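A quick aside before the break. I want you to see a complete sequence-to-structure record at least once, exactly as it would be stored in a machine-readable document. Don't worry about memorizing anything.
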Amino acid sequence: MQFYLLLILGMLFSAFSVAESSVWQIAKGDHKIYIGGTIHLLKPEDFPYPGEFDQAFEQAEQVAFEMDLDEANSPAFAFSVLKEMRFSDPSQTLESTLSPAVYKKLSAHLEPYGLLQPMQSMKPVFVVLTLTVMKYQQLGYVPGVDDYYFKQSKKQNKDRLFLETAQEQFGFLTSMNEINADQMVSSSLDEIEKIEDLGGKMTQFWKQGESDKLFELADMKSKYPQVYQVLLKDRNTRWIPKIEEMFASKKPTLILVGALHLAGEDSVLAMLEKKGYTITKAKF
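That is the input. The structure line, written in tokens, reads:
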């Protein structure tokens, strides 16, 4: 069921010296926990990850993830994804949903894979997500930081916590169906053409701990304000009470979320700072 996990992780997007990492310390009073910004998809050669991740992980009694990756890979979840990916009205198709110009543009991407007809019954957002995942796979990307530490936490019997369910996260993606289909498909196809360059730069900024540059590169807030609101700002807001509960437990904790959730004025870190927490880059 790995494809369904990649479908979600794909939304979200060489060796060199590393100045900083993407791990922060959250402190208040005499207690602290750690939060790491992750890249969901990376290449095998990007391993090992910056040492701060391992150090924060080793200190943690509990590790929090965006969602339960076992749930995301379950047959039950796969079935619900497949059901939601298709139009509820059998007479509706991609061709009838999109303008002739955008449909022609999409057809040029689908035809080489023989997918134009098989995908006629799929909603536009899931068509472009599938194409995005396929492009990442062609470039050699595999599940990255979250997947690695999820497996490590199971091996070491660490408590695992989740900020949302896989079904909730998938629900945020389905809400993108409300966005203008022509605009979403056309801009997404343009972005797919840039994935090789974009992916390399995002990985570099992540390894160097340059979250602001990574955030600017993604440019989601100005390019896709509705997506930004749903996938980043709204989710960040929902996570804050859960993170505060983890902090209040006084247990050594590592929280792992996508790096874009930790940058910008609406980030998890900015929201926690407003609530009186001190945020600094982790030093071990």
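Two observations worth writing down. The beta strands are 23-28, 31-38, 41-42, 62-65, 142-143, 159-162, 253-258, 278-281. Confidence is low (pLDDT under 50) at residues 1-19. We'll return to this after the break.
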